[in-house]
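Let's sit down with a protein and look at its sequence and fold side by side. Which protein we use is up to you, so please pick one and set it down. Label the sequence line and the structure token line clearly, so we can match residues to local backbone shapes. Go ahead whenever you are ready, and we will take it from there:

***
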Amino acid sequence: MTDLDVEHKGMAQAAARLWSSRWLLAAGVVAVLSAFAFANISAYVLVPALLLLLVAAMLPAAGLRQSGENAAAIEAIGLQRLSGEYLAAAVADPLIIFDRAATIVHANAAAFAAFGGIAPGLSLPLKFRAPEMQTLLDSVLSGTIASDVVDYTEKLPVERAYRVSASSVGHGTDLYVLVFKDQSETRRIDRMRADFIANASHELRTPLASIAGFIETLRGPARNDPAARDQFLQIMQNQTGRMARLIDDLLSLSRLEMKPYLKPGTEVDLRQTVDSVIDSLAPLARENGVVIERDFAKGPLDVPGDRDELFQVFENLLENACKYGQSGGRVVVSIAPADDGSEPGIDVTIRDFGPGIPEEHIPRITERFYRIDVETSRTQKGTGLGLSIVKHILTRHNARLTIKSEVGKGAAFSVHLPTH
């Protein structure tokens, strides 16, 4: 650094100190000028006093520097008082501190809750016998690497997937730490996504294969057979309709998942909405030999929500009742204020008297593409997504779906909608 650079740096520092002390300097100047004006101080005294103020303002702020050093020292003392136990307790993930002999020194509460049966003095290789955990411990304890990460699955009491990281603590402490990051929910979502893609691909591939086969037949053996041509074209039309319904349902699910929360909307008249659904499905009911009966309570039946989405909910539920409960000959649609003592609301129940749903299927029938009877569902032109759409819409409305069924006596789907 040249003498000129040093000079410039010194001038910059002096200017910075002068600026940081500008208010104190201004107050001193005012005080000196006031003394000169009112106390008859000589001008020979005034000029040196002002120069002294200026020099004092440019001097390094030793007191401030000292104050900063004191604050840093206090902070360091505070950190030293924090024991490893306190720091481990502040970590939400399971954390285990161990020594060079792979013996547990300390485990936080999350580790006890996740694994149980761990205590200081326990050998980690005996607790975690999976090969990947043994390799992780060996690599860190050998000193070949400072830290490492592996995937580990704990089987009991319930299966949980973890991303486990191991690293040394500081330098020369002979202590190491294991941190378990729970990946179970991420893995579950990944499996759901993979299953969804596989199911959607299968549902689209089946009608496409059928259409391709009939096209090949029409261009070959059935080229000059009018009766076969008409039959095959009708089947192809049905298959394209099935694909169109599936795509429409997939798009509906996508839109619902992109906006999971419903904005405050208008009041929806459930009486008018359900009446519209019944009228729109009257031809389907007649086709299946089903009579739709109404049982609506008197008085206002309004709830906050989106009318089009609620229409879709009741349309899906009533359509299923007409298709799968047609053997019962009738479907009862009732609307009444909730009387279960919970939050104020209105219950809409669609009950059929068909074969019913076996109890083991009820918890899963709102899953995407889940079918109780695959062939029956496809015969009834079902996509396997209707109840999943219903569940998503009701979640957006802070509502809930209750399903009650007894084999041979039909099924009842009840929608509870809050009134505020």
